[in-house]
Amino acid sequence: MACEANRVVKQVDKYGQLSEILLPYLRCVQSFRNNHFVDAYNAFEKSANAFLQEFRNWESAWAMEAMCMVAYEMRRLAEMADRELAAAGRNPEKLKGAGSFLMKVFGALAVLIPGVVPVGGVAPSGSGPYFSALL
Length: 135
Prior knowledge:
Blueprint: H1 2-14, H2 16-33, H3 37-57, H4 64-87, H5 94-112, H6 129-134
Helix pairs in contact: 2-3, 3-4, 3-5, 4-5
């Protein structure tokens, strides 16, 4: 029994970043299914920031497509969360946060792949639908 516990602890240490990505994401899915979009956005933002941190640690941009989809989904969740906040009479602020996250993504991409980040709001040719959808 103690041997298994040690193995689990070593795995958590080795894959700690994975838990920082997956656990908030699962909270997001649960909140989304319960139509609590503000809670879903907050959990997704935490998960997305952990994924972005891990993305920055990689030497290549093999997960660029996934990173762009995370940013796109964050924007969609932010819109739903802002509608929920406005309906409750509170200040809608989540779309602004999603925009800040998008700028972080562009910054990470600029480091990994110089010349890919859109300048002046224009997606580069050959970048696919991802940048166009994000802008």
